[in-house]
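ok so I'm stuck.
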Amino acid sequence: MINEEIQKAASNIKALVTDVDGVLTDGSLTFDENGVEYKTFNAKDGQGIVMLNKTGFVTAIITARENGTVRHRFKNLGMTKLYEGCKNKIAALKDFMAEYNLKPEEIAYVGDDLPDICVLRVVGLPCCPLDAVDEVRATAKFVSSKNGGKGAIREICDLILKSTGKYDQIVKEIVNKC
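replied:
not stuck anymore, here's the structure
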C-alpha cells in the first residue's frame, strides 16, 4: 500500500536516477578468467525504464564502477545520462540537476548501500530495493517489495507513472502495438 506522502512525492518526479549493483542487478559480481565482469539485468526493470523514457522522464545511472555491460544496458534502454566511476555520487547528482534543470524534489533515486545515502538524503523520492542495507532502508521514503535486480526498479517506475497520471497512457500505447 502506497501512503499519501509517498504518492505526493512521486507525483512531483521528473527524473529517475539509479545505482547499478544491487539495484539494477542482484549485486552479484561475475568475472571470467581474464577479469572481464558480467552482470545480469531484469527485463521487467528495463521495461519500466523504457516506459519512463517514452513518457518524458529523464533517466540516469550513477555508479562507482566502470563496466561495458552497464554502458550497453544504458544505451539499450535509451537512458539519458550515465555517470561511471563516480566515487562522489552527490557531485554527479549536482551535475545532473544542473544539466537538466532539475530540483531535488523532482528526482527519484534508487540505491542499496552506504555510498547511496548522501544522494538519498537530498532527493524528493529516495527509494531502495527490499534487500538494501539497513541504513539505506532507514533513509528511503519508499522501500520496494522486490529485491535489487528482481523487479524493484519496475515497481518504482510504475509508482512514478501512476502517481503522475501517465501509467494508463503508456500501457495503452504498448498494448495497442501488440
